[in-house]
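Can you please make up a whole protein chain along with its backbone structure tokens because I've never seen that pairing?
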Amino acid sequence: MSINDYVRWFSEIRLADVPVVGGKNASLGELYSTLSRQGIRVPNGFALTAQAYRDAQRIKGEGDAKAAAIYARAYEQNPEFYAFYRSLEAYKQSFKSKSDVLVLEPNSEFFKYLKNSKPPK
């Protein structure tokens, strides 16, 4: 596919192009055309096509799948670390504000991995 398959200039878009560029972009193309014919100067813009969006989502999905496979292989090598990492992610999601405070007992599960880890050589 070329860039021309993914981008349409407003000057090329009409309302009939809704399946190609979506309703809002088709309306902008029609507006551009109508105003330009009336002598009103409007800067030309562009729209990404629905195909561009579909292809981007497919590529993103492929990348996400590859990343998940890499994570799975890495976590299989150290299930304890994976459990620790999931805990950290859960804490991160729960405490998003800079003013959040977390109080933990020194013997809590949170510190289990840190206590048993060995420093790198």
